[in-house]
Write a structure and sequence with these properties.
single chain, alpha/beta, FAD/NAD(P)-binding domain, 5-stranded parallel beta sheet, about 10% strand, globular
Length: about 900
């Protein structure tokens, strides 16, 4: 195997443990793949490896993880222990060694790797990166000294930021009695002559600082809001206890209860809670991601401190020293906050919230790292956030990242080849600062960075899945942004594609994508012109994959249904990583698709090896699973997709269905409201999510909320295209059928604004279903008659077996001919799924049958239908209706059960 000829340029910003392990993995993996790389390790620190965490010179500061679990390499767990035993034959896996020993180990691992890897070159730059800007397919990093470093990709290994200090007040901060960051070089040296000391914070930092500052003639006070100090490791711990199945999507209260039960069961089984806590490590990230935004915020406020003192424990030796200091009165800990701290005649007078007043020589900030990056004051962090190259993570913690640590840009901003590792991923993972997590992230990030760069050849740029784009960097960048919006179901893709083909009129894929989008979504796209431009461009400059895509789009737009299907599926078989083609083939909220339900399932399931944990693919698979009524799997997949890309449209849609179909109406409504508040403004299918929210309100019998939502989000001025029928008109008909809307339905404005081809000559059974409902809601028998004639003339089975009979049935409802309506609606229930609508959508036919049954006096059959629905899922609306049918009210009362409240 020969070496790659072109060297890739990669920057790693930060030379602590995370940055060092990332460089080591990049060099080792590049060597194995025989790829030439040049790596710039940029950090003003003198030494690479130890960083802040392992740069302490105090031998009393011990690792908080036993040596046997501290290897630098996830595939070689004994590596650190072998180094230790090489120096000390008595070293054991359970030893908690000085942190400075581990800092030396990291430096040695880096030195060994540089020496052993012939194909990689490491450049050490002792400066601070203060800004980044996009440059071509890569980026330029600006250094504090003014120079720029141009690279193809970068990894931000920024470590923990200095603790926040707003609590200290300006007077204390300006004095010489305040230590803002105890880990700054020499920060504690000046306290040698100080008297008593106050440490604000009682966590891991407090434990180390107390060991350093303790002396016989000094009292070290330590306070925090909770007063909790870290628990200790056992010298001879039991192995982790596997937890039961836990699910954060049921809410924080339920999760908290289940975790406590798990810890209690572990204590009963083995006499200690710690194995139970250690067993949670593997599922912590998934549980965090399953929690709603509100529950994450609650956890940070109500549970984080208790979690941290049990999860992040101190070494037995450290714990013994802390106990001795507390027993002797030289360390006093308590629960209190600083009310004020004022320097006065060489001391600091501190008033605490518990009523005490202390006079101390110094106050040390031990509150822990600042996790809200917006408040760090770091110029590089400020730059990437302001330029949209990154966005803040969930719950305001760190950066928002994909599953592999790549920074997710703000809406509309370019996605740079920027990854991050370690503490900056806390928002997505919660636990992301210990070596076992960091070494795994380093290996994954290195693999993804090298893979991304391997796909960038001199022949041209590539899309996010590595497919070649025969165009320049500008058009490719615009296309990449458009593709991401298409895959996420966001607005603005057509405009970006228009800009891409304006930048390069010879960009075949750009024209083809624009034509496809115009065909599917309408708008101002000249579809024939875009398709013609795609053909012209493909004949001059395109590879086989691009020409195949243009041909498939042409067949989809201009051929028969079967021709379009065959061309699109054939293209996907040859080019499975063409996510645009896969999207167009599968019926979703974004595309009409060319496959039936089970065909779509097989297609998506068959691509698992191609896309793996990609957020778009997980969302597609989640939707498949909910269609298969595998609700828990669907929800777990959707949660994972949303953790990687919070605006992922297919994942949101899948989860909306899961909530509805499992009867979680209040939780589903709250979750949708929260999501739409954060991401709804740019959602291409916002009206459909509003429809989902309205279904919850209808089922919960909150009529006023339903009416407000319609007026606010589903009137004609707020909705466009076919969604006027699919979301707005269908909701009005369902509201009438369930008695949730009284008076005349506002159909006129919807029919006037709706596409005429949808109403008069719909191309699909899905469109025809919703056209029929709209004509019925308007009471327009002539419209239903024209649609019926179109269905009979169409010739396709779904139009003959479903749409034409449905028009007859709805006409009978409009005429109030209940026997005819019931006779025609009943046989349609097992057939209506053929139109391609979701269960929640075609359920409206069942609602119409219920209305006809009760209106016609068939109460027993209506009760049976309602009982079957309640067996499927809870519904306050159905429960009330069944209860009303079960008693002995007069026929007039029963006849109005479904039509009025």
């Amino acid at each position: 195997m020969s070496w790659s000829s072109a060297s890739r340029r990669i920057a790693v910003v930060g030379a602590g443990a995370a940055g060092t392990l990332t460089v080591v993995q990049l060099l080792r993996q590049a060597e194995k793949a025989r790829r030439a790389v040049e790596i710039w390790l940029v950090d003003p620190a003198e030494a690479a490896g130890p960083g802040v965490a392992y740069g302490t010179g105090d031998p009393r500061h011990l690792l908080n993880v036993p040596a046997g679990k501290m290897s630098a390499f996830p595939d070689d767990p004994g590596h650190f222990l072998r180094r230790l035993t090489g120096r000390d034959p008595h070293a054991a896996a359970g030893d908690f060694v000085p942190r400075q020993e581990y800092g030396r180990y990291l430096a040695e691992v880096l030195e060994d790797t540089v020496r052993e890897c012939r194909g990689g070159r490491l450049h050490r730059v002792r400066e601070r990166v203060v800004a980044v800007r996009e440059q071509g397919a890569g980026m330029a990093l600006r250094l504090a000294g003014g120079d720029e470093l141009r690279v193809d990709a970068a990894v931000l290994a920024l470590g923990n930021f200095r603790p926040g200090q707003d609590w200290a007040g300006t007077e204390l901060r300006a004095s010489g009695h305040f230590v803002a960051d105890p880990w700054a070089p020499g920060a504690l040296d000046a306290l040698a002559s100080a008297g008593d000391v106050l440490l604000v914070g009682t966590g891991l930092t407090m434990a180390d600082v107390a060991l350093t500052l303790a002396r016989p003639d000094r009292v070290v006070h330590a306070v925090s809001r909770h007063g909790l100090v870290p628990q200790e490791h056992l010298a001879d711990p039991a192995p982790p206890a596997e937890p039961p199945r836990l699910d954060g999507s049921h809410g924080l209260d339920t999760l908290r209860r289940d975790v406590r039960r798990h810890l209690a069961a572990t204590r009963r089984a083995c006499g200690d809670w710690r194995p139970g806590m250690d067993g949670l490590r593997a599922v912590t990230a998934a549980l965090w991601q399953q929690l709603s935004a509100a529950d994450r915020a609650r956890f940070l406020t109500e549970d984080l401190r208790a979690w941290e003192v049990h999860r992040h424990r101190i070494a037995p030796g450290t714990a013994a020293t802390i106990r001795a200091l507390r027993a002797s009165g030289r360390l006093l800990t308590g629960a209190a906050e600083v009310v004020y701290a004022v320097p006065h005649h060489g001391v600091v007078v501190v008033r605490l919230s518990d009523g005490r007043t202390l006079r101390v020589g110094a106050v040390v900030n031990c509150t822990g790292a600042q996790t809200d990056l917006r408040r760090t004051g770091d110029p590089l962090v400020r730059c990437v956030l302001e330029r949209g190259y990154a966005r803040t993570g969930p719950a305001g913690l760190g950066f928002d990242t994909s599953g592999d640590g790549r920074l997710l840009p703000a809406d509309g901003a370019p996605a740079l080849r920027l990854w991050t590792i370690g503490a900056a991923r806390r928002g997505n993972l919660l636990e992301s600062t210990a070596i076992p997590e960091i070494r795994g992230q380093a290996a994954q990030v290195a693999d993804r960075v090298l893979s991304a760069l391997a796909g960038r050849r001199v022949s041209g740029p590539r899309d996010r899945y590595g497919l070649r784009l025969s165009t320049g960097a500008e058009a490719a960048g615009l296309y990449g942004q458009a593709l991401e919006r298409i895959l996420a179901g966001r607005t603005g893709a057509a405009a970006l594609l228009g800009e891409a083909v304006d930048a390069d009129p010879g960009f075949a894929v750009g024209h083809a994508a624009l034509a496809l989008l115009g065909h599917e979504c309408g708008g101002a796209v000249d579809v024939p012109a875009a398709l013609a431009s795609a053909h012209r461009a493909a004949s001059r400059r395109a590879d086989d994959r691009e020409r195949s895509l243009v041909a498939a789009v042409d067949a989809r737009l201009r051929g028969t249904e079967e021709q379009g299907k065959a061309a699109l599926l054939g293209h996907i078989a040859a080019h499975p990583r063409d996510a645009l083609a896969v999207s167009a083939a599968v019926p979703t909220v974004s595309f009409n698709g060319v496959t039936g339900a089970e065909e779509a399932w097989a297609l998506i399931e068959g691509l698992s090896g191609v896309y793996g944990q990609d957020w778009w693919y997980l969302g597609q698979l989640a939707f498949v699973r909910q269609e298969q009524e595998r609700w828990q799997e669907a929800d777990a997949l959707a949660v994972r997709a949303l953790a990687a890309h919070p605006a992922a449209g297919h994942a949101v849609h899948a989860r909306a269905h899961v909530f509805y179909e499992t009867g979680e109406h209040r939780a589903g409504l709250a979750w949708l409201e929260e999501w739409m508040g954060r991401h709804g403004a740019g959602a291409g299918h916002r009206s459909h999510l509003s429809w989902h929210a309205a279904l919850h309100e209808l089922t919960l019998e909150d009529r006023s909320a339903l009416l407000r939502r319609y007026d606010r989000e589903l009137v004609a001025s707020q909705v466009g295209g076919g969604r006027l029928l699919v979301d707005s008109a269908s909701l009005l008909w369902r509201a009438r059928m369930t008695g949730s809307w009284s008076g005349r339905l506002p159909l006129a404005e919807l029919l006037e604004a709706a596409p005429r081809d949808w109403l008069e000559a719909p191309a699909t059974g899905f469109a025809a279903l919703h056209a029929a409902l709209a004509w019925a809601a308007a009471g327009d028998l002539e419209g239903l008659g024209r649609l019926r004639a179109h269905a009979l003339a169409d010739g396709r089975e779904v139009f003959a077996l479903v749409i034409a009979p449905l028009c007859d049935a709805l006409a009978a409802v409009v005429r109030r001919n209940w026997p005819q309506a019931v006779l025609r609606l009943g046989p349609l229930l097992p057939l209506v799924a053929r139109v391609g609508a979701s269960r929640a959508q075609h359920e409206v036919v069942e609602e119409t049958l219920l209305y006809a049954l009760v209106s016609g006096g068939a109460y027993e059959r209506a009760a049976g239908l309602l009982a079957a629905r309640l067996d499927r899922r809870p519904s306050p609306l159905d429960r009330r209706r069944l209860d009303a049918l079960g008693g002995p009210p007069a026929p007039r009362d029963r006849a109005t059960v479904l039509s009025v409240r």
